[in-house]
Amino acid sequence: MTPIRVDAAIVEPVTLAEMRVYLRLDPDDGGAENALVESLIASARAQVELAAGRILVPGRYRLMLTAWPRDGRLPLPLSPVVAVARAGLVDGAGLVIDLAPGLVRVGADPIEAPGLIIDPTVPALNERAALIEVDAGHGGAGPPIPPGLVQAIRLLVAHAFEHRGDGPGDGSPPPAIAALIDPLRRLRL
After folding, report:
1. Is the sign of the CA dihedral 51, 141, 39, 159 positive or negative?
2. What percent of the chain shows pLDDT beyond 90?
3. Number of CB atoms found within 10 A of residue 122's CB
4. Which whole-number Å values give the CA distances from 161 to 16, 31, 96, 152, in the listed order?
5. Could you give the CA distance from residue 43 to residue 86 in angstroms, rounded to a whole number?
6. Predicted model pTM
7. Which of 17, 20, 137, 162 has the greatest CB tally within 10 Å of its CB?
8. How far apart, in whole angstroms, are the C-alpha atoms of residue 1 and residue 115?
């Protein structure tokens, strides 16, 4: 089960305008560095998401299951999970029959132990699949992005902007940036 993002709109947690001010770029440069800064923002956000184990932009994710979990708990690699947007059964013809609300719901800890609770009365799949869509991520309807992670994005962008062309690194964030991320990293056992 691999969640697939089904909405394409991504609003970065750090804006281009904010980053231009942070980098002290000349406002009269005609936007010469805008494309670079935008790509650095997206890259830094992805790096912080990976390091922290959290989604920093809200989005909708689709899961397909061929069997219900035996214990009624479905752990998800998405944090934080905000809501179940849709749950249904897909027949052989591809027709989706929505399940009653509450049969699939968000677990007790949507940030540190994100997952879904499957009610025992959910219909058996019997040659069908389950389609579940969840809203996940900080921002939007989810919890706000921790300020330390936003600052880590800014610092990563500034670091990459300042050291562009210096050669390949090991891919890990500098120690000061890692110190911002580590306390907010979601741990897995």
Report:
1. negative
2. 71
3. 16
4. 13, 15, 47, 14
5. 30
6. 0.84
7. 137
8. 13
